[in-house]
What we know:
The structure is a homodimer.
Chain A: H1 3-9, H2 23-33, E1 45-50, H3 53-62, H4 67-71, E2 74-81, H5 88-97, H6 103-113, H7 122-142, E3 146-150, H8 155-161, E4 168-177, H9 184-187, H10 196-199, E5 200-202
Antiparallel strand pairs in A: 1-2, 2-4, 3-4
Helix pairs in contact in A: 2-7, 3-8, 5-6
Amino acid sequence: xxxxxxxxxxxxxxxYTDDELTKDAIMGLFETVRTAPSSFxxxxxxxxxxxxxxxxxxxxxxxxxxxxxxxASAVVVVLGHLNRSSFAERTLEDxxxxxxxxxxxxxxxxxxxxxEELQDNVEWTVQSCTIAATYLMLAAWNNGIASCxxxxxxxxSVENEFDVPENLHPVLMVTLGYPDLSSREWNRERKWRRxxxxxxxFEELSFS
Amino acid sequence: xxxxxxxxxxxxxxxYTDDELTKDAIMGLFETVRTAPSSFxxxxxxxxxxxxxxxxxxxxxxxxxxxxxxxASAVVVVLGHLNRSSFAERTLEDxxxxxxxxxxxxxxxxxxxxxEELQDNVEWTVQSCTIAATYLMLAAWNNGIASCxxxxxxxxSVENEFDVPENLHPVLMVTLGYPDLSSREWNRERKWRRxxxxxxxFEELSFS
Lengths: 208, 208
């Protein structure tokens, strides 16, 4: 689907059919997700995909009991690496080989990444992982799969429940499933959006 | 362009032609951006779009002198509201009217949003604004306009230089311009991406 139509017709949805979302269908979406840009091309993301009833129940408990977690066919927990060193050697070497940066610069960056405090990188990893999560939502809708991004969960519970290593930060959950076109939610009028003129300022900020 | 092709062919680019990026062309991109999802549909974003040479010079100083800031035809500074109350009344009222939530729930949320500490909401606004920034990059490429997301700038300098109100947080810059197809950068081999099998785990995390 053309991006314009895709964006106009996509909507966050909690009401899904019971149709199975296969592993293959899910893996196909990630062929688009993997092309997402990230800071220094560090790709600091991991995707924990939960389809089992028991797994979704555990996630629902982490998400203050929100019903659409278990209603979804699958829930993807987007986790961000807090250490920029995770894939740095591989991606910087690639950038040196292809002429994007000098060996000296790559070595400097690698050294910097290896000596950072993990907690200083939360905002950094949230940015890159949210770009990837956005690709996931758009790729889903391009394949007829509805989604809803969720930030309303307790990251500590997710870490404990799913043995998340210390260097990974739970960024977002994305629920996935085929849209229930007979649902009340689907048939509600679309939500209000701000006008472009209200959001965009040229050269300086002015608030009316 | 279909999303799959759009994602595959898009690449972050610093090399732009001198062709003007008109205000109309830029405003057209935001017709797609405005459809982006956000937490509670609060749409906590403002876009400061800089096209003037003097404005880009000031932004370049905020971005540690990075040349592609002034090489770009336009730079969009994505700013996020730290107070969730900014558009809460408008959007919650809309959700009550259309049946998405009860009046009681909307009132509770509004009360909560009005009594929060701004600094607790950084991660929250970074998420919603990064979704919008991703829409901007994809909409640009769908219109033949290249872009590069940039987190490498000093947010305090941006705040001082452009009189950013205290309740707004600089999240990202996005450089925009028509791609210079004769540039060395454009003709370099594409950067490495992680394999899907390496990024996606089912049911539990396992790292090989």
